[in-house]
Predict the structure.
Amino acid sequence: MFDFDFFVSTLSPIARGLEVTVEITLAGTGIAMVLGLVFEVLRRSRFRVVRWPVAFVRDFIQNTPLLLQAIFFFYVFPEYGLFKLSPFVSGIIVIGIQYSTYTSEVYRAGIDGVPAGQWQAARALNFSRTDTWRRVILPQAIPPVLPALGNYLISMFKDTPQLLVIGVLDMVGVAKAIGSENYEYTEPMIAAGIFFIILSFLASLVVRRLESRFGAHL
Amino acid sequence: MHFIDTLGHGALTTVKLTVYAGLIGFAIALVAGTAMLSRFVVVRFVARTYTEVFRGASELVILYFFVFALPQLFDITLSVFTGAVIALSVNIGAYEAEVVRGAVRSVPRGQTEAAIALNMSPFLRLRRIIVPQAFVAMLPPINVLTVQLCKATALVSIIGLTDLTRASQDIIELNGQWARYAGEALIGYYLINTVINQLFRLLERHFKRGRDIGGTVRV
């Protein structure tokens, strides 16, 4: 049956796992925000040799599971005698890359939402390509999609437990370790679950604030 | 050479999990999604709580809950496969419920009014008028979620089911060829999801036929 004392004793180690979860989410979000934009801008390249491979890579990453990507990434480089990254760093990179494929779709919507006249005006004013992107298009494309990017931050937060397959000790990783030590998964997993629900709920309130601030619906 | 069999069996489990949980999840979503639009506060509250809880918790936690905690708390026996299907269904169902809710609300109000004028019961109204129209709007987001579901099935490898991910790991344990067999499993998922995307494209085309959807209403 449910052992309440055991449940309480799991809370503090799991809260320490929370720190790892949050760190990975924030660093992963940083990668996803930048790389997603790079993906989307490259996908709009004038050159087919750039466009096609980028589209394929993005498609491939998007249609394969994070869990397996983490395993692949973490073990393949050492197999060829190359560098070996820590589980923590590998996790950040893999989750950042996976989510950059999602954020690139978000940026796509944002960039498509900029009226064609803006491109034409930038050309008429003799802006270079870089300046057109940097000064005209992106400042208009990004703010409306911020809430949508925020939603991906929440789902990234919920995806970090998958990284336990490469040995990352996030909340669920800790819960699983406690569980296998005591042959009892119920209490630690319920504890981790409660943490998740509370935090995702808080995060969704923040995203809703963003939504009302920028007033976009995507 | 027999490794391809191992991967094939694993892939079959992955496909089964995706199909079962996809169908059950959609059924749950239809109920929960329309319940969120109910006139009754209690019904709305229950449906809301369900979606918030299962969208808020991590998939892996839900999986552990249904496979390990639930059977123990309520003293029932579930096979790992059944537990996994239930966990994946209620999770994807919560996401799809939001889709159903949005799609039902996107059907113009006049349709409901006309159905009321024709003296249809609330259930008949949903079944014959609202849902068929909402269905077309649901397809693209459900497609995205189904791919997400297929990817989420990889989690069952952690709790001991031999899906495509587990199968590749089993092989690697024998021969240590990470790049090759993890790579083949990745390609396997890519192929499965490509098929899913194509199926949804066909469905969309089929259900859009003869309808004036996506553009402005022409009078």
Q: What stands out?
A: Chain B is about 80% helix and 0% strand. Residues 1 and 65 of chain B are 38 Å apart (CA to CA). The mean pLDDT of chain B is 88. Residues 3-35 of chain B form the longest helix (33 residues).
